[in-house]
Amino acid sequence: MSFDNEWAQLKARADTRRGTHTQLNQLAPDPGGSTPQGDLKVSQTELAAIGDAAFRLHQDLDRDGDHARVSSFKAASSLEKDFAVGRALDFVATRWVDQQRSLLDACAHISNHLDYTKHAHKGEEEYLATIFSKISTLEHGFDKGADR
Q: Quick check: 90 and 77 in contact, CB under 8 A?
């Protein structure tokens, strides 16, 4: 059976079962009456832990991930003269260095981005706190004026 025939049959069955309308999946309403908030939540502590783990991974990989580089290239160079495996070892060692650099860059990016995000949100929170305190001071002045 071709795709077109099967697709036509599936559409016809769907039409007879419930008519032609669209149904969107959604989260069931909360019986308490509040609006659903979703389940994606993250705290500054969790973000800091992720950033710290990325920073430690970067440090460890930078220190330990390069320990075989010199010996691998030296072995590849000496093997290349007499054996085809020398070129293969050189290829693998070169790719390892490339992948290590990519991973180091990714770890640094994650760590730096989370640090930036943390500081940016702190600045925004301080700004909003200042604005809200000015509003409450202004409202307090209006309340005093209404008491007269």
A: yes
Residues with Cβ within 8 Å of 50's Cβ and at least 6 positions away in sequence, in order, are 110, 114
Give the chain's radius of gyration (CA, Å): 31
Measured between alpha carbons, how far is residue 70 from residues 46, 66, 91 in Å?
38, 8, 14
Model pTM? 0.49
Are 79 and 85 spatial neighbours (Cβ–Cβ below 8 Å)?
yes
Backbone angles phi, psi at 108, to 5 degrees: -65, -40
- Which 3 state secondary structure label does DSSP give 21? coil
* Residue 23 vs residues 19, 20, 26, 35, 45: alpha-carbon distances, Å: 11, 10, 9, 20, 39
Query: Which residue type sits at 19?
Result: G
Hunting for tokens 């999946």 — which residue is that? 25
Under a CB-based contact definition with an 8 Å cutoff, are residues 110 and 51 in contact? Answer: yes
Q: 90-146 pLDDT, tens per residue?
A: 999 999 899 999 989 988 888 888 777 777 777 777 787 787 777 767 666 666 655
